[in-house]
Amino acid sequence: MTTGLPDHALKILLLDDDAFMLELLQDLLGELGYGNVRAETTARAALQSLPQWRPELLICDLSMPEMDGIEFLRAVAGQDYAGGVILLSGMDSGVLRAARTLATAQGLAILGACAKPVQAAELAGLLALAALHSAADSGAEALPGAGTR
């Protein structure tokens, strides 16, 4: 799909056990000019993709079978993942806040925590933040305010 928007090079890994939600996210990312996206439906597959594909941004659901989002984020932190993370959940905002706090304590750069379905404007803002985080990380600088949104 041609949108007239610039093609952003940010590498994004999506994780959601709901294939329909993954398709919606991929479509939304494409409309926003982000085409370098890999989608996984299991936490185990996403964990295998991390060291091989090295995404700058991870967008993940918190409620999944086998390995929930919190367990997944602990494993991601254990791989010394330095990219940005956006959390998604259909659960209440308290769950998102708790997950964000736990993931930040694990050393992950949580850029945002969004209720599903995420709105295009909210996602666009978080993607811009992710691009800044990626640029700062590649410049060996810390991003001021990361995880405080």
List the helices and strands and how they pair.
Layout: E1 12-15, H1 19-31, E2 37-40, H2 43-53, E3 57-61, H3 69-78, E4 84-89, H4 93-105, E5 109-115, H5 120-138
Parallel strand pairs: 1-2, 1-3, 3-4, 4-5
Helix pairs in contact: 2-3
Helix content: 40-55%
Order of adjacent strands in the largest pleated sheet = 2-1-3-4-5
Number of H/I helices: 5
Low-confidence stretches: 1-5, 140-149
Largest sheet: 5 strands, parallel
Tell me the radius of gyration: 14 Å
What is the string of helix and strand elements? EHEHEHEHEH
How far apart the termini lie comes to: 31 Å
- Mean pLDDT over all positions: 87
Structural class: alpha/beta
Overall shape: it is globular
What's the total count of β strands?
5
Oligomer: single chain
Structure in a nutshell:
The chain has 149 residues and is an alpha/beta fold. 44% of the residues lie in helices and 17% in strands.
Care to describe what's here?
The protein is an alpha/beta fold and 149 residues long. Helices cover 44% and strands 17% of the residues. The chain has a five-stranded parallel beta sheet, with helices on both faces. Helix 4 links the parallel strand 4 and strand 5. Helix 2 (43-53) runs parallel beside helix 3 (69-78). The radius of gyration is 14 Å and the shape is globular.
What would the keywords be for this entry?
alpha/beta, 5-stranded parallel beta sheet, 5 helices, globular, disordered N terminus, disordered C terminus
